[in-house]
Amino acid sequence: MNRKRVVGSPADKPQPAQPRGVKAGGGRHIFELARMGKVEAGPGYSTAAGSLVEGERMMIGLMRMPRGTGALPHSHPNEQWAYVLEGTLKVNIDGRKWDARAGSLVFIPANAVHALVASADGDAVFLTAKDTSHGIAGTAVGDASAGAHYEPGFAPAKHTAGRDR
Predict the structure, then answer these.
(1) What are the backbone dihedrals phi and psi of residue 21, each rounded to the nearest 5 degrees, phi first?
(2) What is the DSSP string of 68-97?
(3) Measured distance CA(86)–CA(75) in Å, rounded
(4) What is the pLDDT along the chain (165 residues), one digit of tens a residue?
(5) What would the pLDDT profile of 45-89 be if each residue is shown by its tens digit?
(6) Strand 22-23 vs strand 49-54: parallel, antiparallel, or unpaired?
(7) From CA 121, how far away is CA 111, in angstroms rounded?
(8) Residues 6+ apart with CB under 8 A from 143
(9) Gap between the terminal Cα atoms of the chain
(10) pTM to 2 decimal places
(11) How far is residue 88's CA from residue 90's CA, in Å, rounded to a whole number?
(12) How far is 98 from 91, CA to CA, in rounded Å?
């Protein structure tokens, strides 16, 4: 995996390269987000994935989180907005918790430890915006070796060699 060093990240650990979206400009002005390729918004710590368009100073992503899944607590040096289009996001920002239903706009300050999780009732779809000073992905807080967040009963099935049928 391509890795780069991010100074000032937790324990100054090597971080994966940022996922890249489609670059705007150069005559490209209209983007059919539903038809674009998908990127993982938080590789290794989140189930959010969707289309991503990057301008010179801003990026916009149309993301989906499957129900009962989401991101581990993480942070990034750029602030973020998330407009919920479908479903409900369980939001935790610096230890404060809310439910953001369709039609809600969530503001996440720069460097705030936060997590977004789709409720168990259904997938969550949200439009997210960030400045391009850092990229779409953040840095998980604590041990992210187990992967993304899964509510009870929503973890992927574990396959054991010789036991798959």
Answers:
(1) -100, -170
(2) TEEPPSEE-SS-EEEEEEESEEEEEETTEE
(3) 24
(4) 333 333 344 444 555 577 788 999 999 999 999 999 999 999 999 999 999 999 999 999 999 999 999 999 999 999 999 999 999 999 999 999 999 999 999 999 999 999 999 999 999 999 999 999 999 999 999 888 778 999 999 998 874 444 333
(5) 999 999 999 999 999 999 999 999 999 999 999 999 999 999 999
(6) parallel
(7) 30
(8) none
(9) 31
(10) 0.84
(11) 7
(12) 5
Reading the block at residue 43, the tokens are: 């590789």
Polymer length of the chain: 165
Q: Which two tokens stand for residue 45?
A: 């710590």
Q: Which residue is it, tokens 């060699």?
A: 161
User: Domains (ranges, CATH) in the chain?
Assistant: 33-146 (2.60.120.10)
SS3 state at 165: coil
Contact 135, 80 (CB under 8 A): no
Q: Which amino acid is at 88?
A: T
